[in-house]
Specification:
Helices cover 36% and strands 20% of the residues. α1 packs across α11 and α5 crosses α9. It starts with 11 loop residues before the first helix and ends with a strand. Bound molecules: histidyl-adenosine monophosphate. It catalyses: tRNA(His) + L-histidine + ATP = L-histidyl-tRNA(His) + AMP + diphosphate + H(+).
């Protein structure tokens, strides 16, 4: 049996890098006051339909959806944000006057995409969400944290760009989307079949994101988002950029950046690896999401966050910063009759916190030379030898493998 297309098995060397990246994510997030949250991998289909958006690519084409035995439509989560907000609404205590909540999470996400470099059907995200603050400086803080995370992974700053844009508020987005619809209607015969679908389904914004060559040409003349932002939205965006300047964070304004999820308002951003034009992190503000999925209060729940694709990070992380495997103590046994003493020492070493390798239990088949050969693959710092001569005086020989001495 083969694994499902777009899913991968990760062996210890890769898992070690995974854990390391997650550890960096956790330690950076905790410096900014974030705490861990975890939500289910399965969620009601309706959650993503109402947040990520009925006409988004994710909901239209990429969700793993099925009916459970009771007939409820369930899906494997394609992202983490909607689940976190659902959890907070269900928990019930959050109102607009609640203190700001800061959460981080990690885990598998699922999208039925065409597998290619850095694009999988099951992938891991590390994400962070800041809930309950609408101030432009909260956008700055969370972008600073995203940047800090990527820097800590040792990816050199000349290899990635932080791209940023503002979608404006609900009204600006609606006005802009109407202008785009009118523009694309005039070019409908030149659009790719996918983009025609997007247009017909009322999602003209998604055409700006199209990778089709013909669409890219057409998009060069498309109306520009910034011309549809209200003055207050422009002012808000300016304030975010000033905040980034103040922290010395380099960014590029990308007026073509719209992101693929419908819940975004105002600031959106991505961190892109330049050589492959691949996003290793994406995020933005999503003030209206909570209301769409059952937040009962009349006011909005201002929120912003980001998520990074760990599988993509694995491709670009600086290998030098990944901690090396630790070096064990090896145990070599010269005769079957010492095996109880050897196992007892081995167990005591482990219980005292020492990583210890006993390379074989089949002492009849593997002599000391074979055992030493096996152990050398683990690069031990020390090897304890239960040899005939030493055991006569109730002692063992300890080899220091780095200094090539023995006692
Ligand atoms: P997203 O841009 O859809 O945003 O995904 C975030 C990151 O997940 C991407 O930048 C990429 O690194 C990784 N990713 C996405 N799809 C795949 C895939 N098929 N294979 C491998 N990696 C992938 C979100 O998911 C939002 N929830 C981010 C957010 C949090 N916005 C606000 N808060």
């Amino acid at each position: 049996l083969k694994s499902i297309k777009g899913t991968y098995d990760y062996f210890p060397n890769e898992k070690r890098v995974y854990s390391f990246v997650n550890q960096i994510g956790k330690s950076v997030s905790e410096l900014y006051g974030y705490e861990e949250i975890s939500t289910p991998i399965i969620e009601p289909f309706e959650l993503f339909n109402r947040s990520v958006g009925e006409y988004s690519d994710i909901v239209m084409k990429e969700m793993f959806t099925f009916k459970d035995l009771s007939g409820q439509a369930i899906c494997l989560r394609p992202e983490g944000t909607a689940g976190v907000i659902r959890a907070i609404i269900n928990e019930g205590s959050t109102t607009s006057t609640s203190p700001t909540q800061k959460y981080y999470y990690s885990g598998p996400m699922f999208r039925y995409e065409r597998p290619q470099k850095g694009r999988q059907r099951q992938f891991e995200q590390f994400g962070a969400e800041l809930i309950g603050d609408s101030h432009p400086r909260s956008d700055v803080e969370i972008i600073d944290m995203a940047y800090h995370f990527i820097e800590k992974l040792g990816i050199p700053s000349d290899q990635f760009h932080l791209k940023i844009n503002s979608l404006g508020d609900k009204n600006s987005i609606k006005t802009y989307s109407d202008a785009l619809t009118e523009f694309y209607q005039g070019k409908i015969d030149k659009l790719s079949p996918d983009s025609i679908k997007r247009l017909q389904r009322g999602n003209a914004l998604r055409i700006l994101d199209s990778k089709d060559k013909g669409d890219i040409e057409i998009n060069k003349d498309a109306p520009l988002l910034q011309n549809y932002l209200s003055d207050s939205c422009k002012q808000r965006f300016k304030s975010v950029l000033e905040g980034l300047d103040n922290l010395g964070i380099k960014y590029q304004i990308d007026n073509g950046l719209v992101r693929g999820l419908d819940y975004y308002r105002h600031t959106i951003f991505e961190i892109i690896i330049l050589k492959d034009n691949l996003a290793i992190l994406g995020g933005g503000r999503y003030d209206g999401l909570a209301n769409n999925i059952g937040y009962k209060h009349n006011e909005i729940l201002p929120s912003i966050g980001w998520a990074s694709g760990i599988d993509r990070i694995l491709i670009y992380i600086n290998q030098d910063i990944i901690p090396k495997k630790s070096n064990p103590i090896g145990i070599v046994i010269g005769n079957q009759i010492f095996s109880d003493s050897a196992m007892s020492l081995c167990s005591r070493l482990r219980k005292n916190g020492f990583y210890t390798v006993l390379p074989t239990f089949k002492l009849d088949e593997e002599n000391m030379t074979k055992q030493l050969k096996k152990i050398s693959k683990f690069n031990p710092n020390f090897v304890v030898i239960f040899g005939e001569d030493e055991m006569k005086s109730n002692s063992v020989c300890i080899k220091n493998m780095n200094e090539r001495t023995q006692e």
